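<instruction>
Derive structure tokens from the sequence
<data>
Labelled lines for chain and fold:
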Amino acid sequence: MVLHNIEKDDPTQNGSQTQKSINKENEREQKLVPLKLTEKTIILVKPKNCNEEYRKKAMEKLGL
């Protein structure tokens, strides 16, 4: 078995850039709403895409 080293952001080395990335992602997610595809699958979408037509397209794309 081969184990690969996975490099993670080190907040002590690059804290401000990491925090900026986190803040940007949080702001983006706040503009999204949940859309339930199945009992176990929920995706985040823009409010304008929260409808049955988009749900069917997403399910088809994801193979559900």
Q: What stands out?
A: The mean pLDDT is 82. Strands lie at 33-36, 42-45. The two ends are 33 Å apart (CA to CA). The chain has two helices and two strands.
